[in-house]
Every structure is written in structure tokens, then in C-alpha cells.
Amino acid sequence: WLWCAGTSAAWGGTLALQGQNRGDTNTWSTVNLQNWRELDYVPCRVYANATSGGGTYTVTVAFPHFSGTTPGIQNLTAFTPSANAVITSAPVLYAPTTSGTWSYTFTFRVTNSSAGWVQFLTRMAAGSHLNTGSSLALSGSPSSMGTLQIHKPAPGPGLPDLAIVKTG
Question: What is this structure's pTM?
Fold first, then answer.
């Protein structure tokens, strides 16, 4: 799961968790993302809809690396702020060996009254197609961020090139 906690003094904006459907690089969505495959990089972002000036947010992004023994999301990479946002504390990975949930924590600041964001890539793990329905979901706090589900990924393209050679 993905938890994002935003805090800011004197800022009237809201946070939203958004992503893109595979093949659509123009539209950001807050609902069930479609057509992804294992090993794909899903574009996601924490979007700050500024309404009364800039603000600073501390965000923890947690994700299901494993659900039991089923792979989920391999990792989050390429944290990139919009032109009017600054990452003031770089993403730090927390990956406990006793849990299948990993997380990154970072802080970003929106520098003006326009919307700003931090975009990142969510890599689907090999084997993530074994998850059911839309059970891979990113959710957040505050609750205004909503829940962003990724519909059951398809198996990766092609056939694995695996071979065992035994000589005697």
C-alpha cells in the first residue's frame, strides 16, 4: 500500500495521488490504472493542487513489494519534481526484512500558487500478474489523496529464456 502524509502551515492546497494508463501519456488519473504488464514502469505522482500559495509536504510512499509470497511492486524510481517544486529531503528507502511493505520518505516544497508535484516511476515486479483484480493499490493520507489502484498486470511479453544444462 502507499501512504502519503502531507503537512503544511498556511497552505490551502490538497494532495492527490495520480497515475497514467499504459499508452496514455497525456492524462493523469486518480482511478484504476489499466493495461500495465509486469516489468513495466507506471508513471505516478503526488500532485499538490495549490490554491493559496506554496507549501511544504513530508510524504511517505509505501508500496506492496510482496503480498505474502506474491510479488507486487519492485521499486519506485526517478523521483522528479515539477518546475515549481523542490525536493528538500531526498527519498530514503525503508525496506524491513520482516515485512513485504517497503516505503520511501521525502519532503517537497511547492514554490508558488500553481499546482506542483513529484513524479516517480512504479516498476511492476516480475510475477506481479499473479495478483488478483485491482489488489495492487496505492493509497494515501490525508484521505483527500484517494486510492489509486493498478488493475491486474498482464504477464510480461515473450517467453522467459531459461535453460538448465547438466553434464555428467
Answer: 0.83
Residue pair 29/19 in contact (Cβ under 8 Å)? The answer is yes
% the chain with pLDDT above 70:
82
**CA-wise closest residue to 3 among 64, 54, 66:** 64
Are 142 and 5 spatial neighbours (Cβ–Cβ below 8 Å)? yes
User: Cis peptide leading into 81, omega within 30 of 0?
Assistant: no
The predicted-structure confidence for 97-116, as pLDDT tens digits, reads as follows: 999 888 888 999 999 989 99
Task: Categorise residue 26: left if φ over 0, alpha if ψ from -120 to 50, beta otherwise.
Answer: alpha
State the alpha helices, DSSP H only, in the chain: none
Count other C-beta atoms under 10 Å from residue 83's C-beta.
Answer: 9
Strand partners, 144: none
- Rounded to whole angstroms, the Cα distance separating 86 from 121 reads 18
